[in-house]
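[job 4471] stage=fold_predict status=RUNNING
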Amino acid sequence: MKKILNIILFQAVISLISGILLSKMSFIGKIGISVAYKEYTLLKTWWKAALVVFVIQLLIIGILYITKRYYAYKNFVIVSLIVFIVGLLGLFYTYIDFTTTSHKYMNSKFHSGGYVFWGGWFITCFYFFFANVKPKPSVIKEDLNDEVQNKPL
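[job 4471] inference complete, writing structure tokens
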């Protein structure tokens, strides 16, 4: 459990940095969010952006932890690779979005906040791939059968 707390605290710091950077958008970006894209107003406040990033990171941590602890190693590797590939696609889409659309005018700090988010995503993937999480002890069916058969009546 101590190892999981380490990654959660690390992701809290990464989320804080990302939230602060995402809130440092350009003046044009703030006007665009206030006028046209009202669904992104939470990015104007650093703590709201950090909270959203942290909740997403906690979901990734939860998925990978549960998969590694309660499922077979083969299933964990599949889920871990899927999460990693989704992260790569998200990073690629973010790069394309920041270089070809009107988001290129936001600010380099805003862009850095997006990239820090994806960096935290990949760190979580690598952490669980190399971390030693104790699997849940499984009950072997043969042991139960032996106990039932050897029990005196």
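[job 4471] summary: DSSP finds six helices and no strands in the chain.
[job 4471] exit 0
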